[in-house]
Amino acid sequence: MDLYIYYKVKDADVTSLQPAVAAMQAALAQQHGVQGQLKRRPGSKDGLQTWMEVYPATPAGFGTALDSAVTQSGLLAWIAGLRHTEQFTDVPPCA
């Protein structure tokens, strides 16, 4: 299962958030073998940017580990509003 998590960040908080996410993703990669990606929508609106974390091919239980890592990393201090998580699975090829 692939996880896509998006959220808003104040322009002023980007320089604090980015290294914290990078450190969290590095720890998750080491502990769970999942290489996270960090993306953002170009530009900002009303002083807010939209950021996205992508975690492809996550193992069972990874969501719980991710939630714990987010709490431990302090990311929520720099996120404006909620983190929204979407789950996607691969579509098998047509027969």
TrEMBL record:
Protein name from the UniProt record: DUF4936 family protein
InterPro entries for this protein: DUF4936 (IPR032556)
Pfam families from the UniProt entry: DUF4936 (PF16290)
